[in-house]
Amino acid sequence: MTKPRDFETLKAMVKTGEIDTVLVCMVDMQGRLMGKRFHAVNFVETSFKETHCCNYLLATDLEMATPEGFASTSWQSGYGDYIMAPDLRTIRPVPWLEGTALVLCDVLDHHTHQPVPHSPRAILKKQIARLEALGFEAKMATELEFFLFANSLDEIRENGFRDLKPISGYNEDYNIFQTTKEEGIMRPIRNHLFDAGVPIENSKGEAEAGQEELNIRYSPALDCADYHSIAKHAIKEISWQNGHAATFLPKWHKDRVGSSSHVHQSLWKNGEAAFYDKDAKHGMSQLMSHYMAGLIKYAPDYTYFLAPYVNSYKRFAKGTFAPTKTVWSVDNRTAGFRLCGEDSKGVRVECRIGGSDLNPYLAQAVMLAAGIKGIEDALELAPATTGDVYEDAKAADIPQTLRDATELLRNSAFLRDALGDEVVDHYTRSAEWEQEEFDRVVTDWEIARGFEKA
Ligand code: ADP
């Protein structure tokens, strides 16, 4: 089918009946696509200008609860509306659904028509604008790791999420034979996303049974976050269409490797790689060293945005390729930050802290803010670490629990300055709520440990 990548083509395809449905979506705090399915005729005639959603969509949790304590939204203020304003630049086909296109929206205040400050897209756009004011453009790539399971989501849910059976029987890292067996799911994921305008590079097996990785070509930061959200959605949906389950839970079993989302970052000026200096060590420009120094210094402050749930912290274990330290290293996978593409125009920093459950808009925004701070303050980059970073006693730890990350977020003068108090308070409340919900639960582990023996 031809591809509606702009409004004019979409209108033409609606006229011929090739497109009958438009998914009009915002991205919520958890990074999910939320919105409505429009009849395409209605969308191209009127709703392309705006539609509306309940404002609790940006003050809820994974279960769609209505927690108290958010300044923006409450029972007292009556849960009003937000405007969803389609960004027509993001129009694309959804080739895995018949006759369907998709558009992403910015979320605006109903009365002022200004961006809602705690909307993930608005948070990222603000940091991109700050970077532009300094004369730079950020290009990013977020890797998507996830697990595929033999059974369907419904079967797994009905079975209480027990006895989970990964789709393959052994570690499939780079394994072509094993991943051939999964092509029934992975090939449509790659090809449909590619046809939807998401520049897929490749997929590969990862270092655990049933674990996959999808790589998307690096792109301007906002596009990168849009691609990530759409790809994550497609992975879940196409797996579901095939009768299987995909999960982005960072740690679904204590004895299995976790899933991450590494974030590759570089800055550009007038189309030139601003991180590259051919005469400098590693080809790393002074600008890049300041950016990285900011990333490293403020990593504890922003870890919450790379690991937003209780489960996210179960991934940070020694000897698993998941980092525990805020240090950098050249091509060493045990450090929180890895310099990649040394001595080339592709020189970049990869942050390895984030879990597969991160919201790409928020993760990129806070890392850009940290990099900008590093540039503004001309922070000096400590020498690279070498060897097994897990055993480096001098290296700073990233927060080990959601509780610790929440306090670092709440008290971060840097984040309050960069994102605004309103945004920090909003996400601090979200983090607190997540912990409160967990603390209410009596887990299987406690019962098995103490039932007889306590
Ligand atoms: P690896 O060997 O770690 O898989 P790749 O070469 O496949 O590394 O690249 C990993 C990711 O880094 C890809 O998504 C790629 O598009 C991205 N990438 C490459 N160059 C840059 C760059 N200059 N800035 C940001 N990301 C980049």
From TrEMBL:
GO biological process terms, alphabetically, are:
biogenic amine catabolic process; biogenic amine metabolic process; glutamine biosynthetic process
Q: Which domain of life is it from?
A: Bacteria
Per its UniProt record, the required cofactor names are: Mg(2+)
- Domain annotation GS beta-grasp: ranges: 17-112
Alphabetical keyword list: ATP-binding, Ligase, Nitrogen fixation, Nucleotide-binding
| EC number(s) on file | 6.3.1.2
Uppermost EC category = ligase
Work out whether the entry's keyword set contains Lipid biosynthesis.
no
| MF terms in GO | ATP binding; glutamine synthetase activity
Among Pfam families, the record links this protein to:
Gln-synt_C
Query: Can you give the residue ranges of the GS catalytic domain?
Result: 120-454
Per the record, the similarity remark reads: Belongs to the glutamine synthetase family.
Functional description taken from the UniProt entry:
Catalyzes the ATP-dependent biosynthesis of glutamine from glutamate and ammonia.
PANTHER family in alphabetical order: GAMMA-GLUTAMYLPUTRESCINE SYNTHETASE, TYPE-1 GLUTAMINE SYNTHETASE 2
- Give the protein name, as stated in the record: Glutamine synthetase
Organism expressing this protein natively: Sulfitobacter undariae
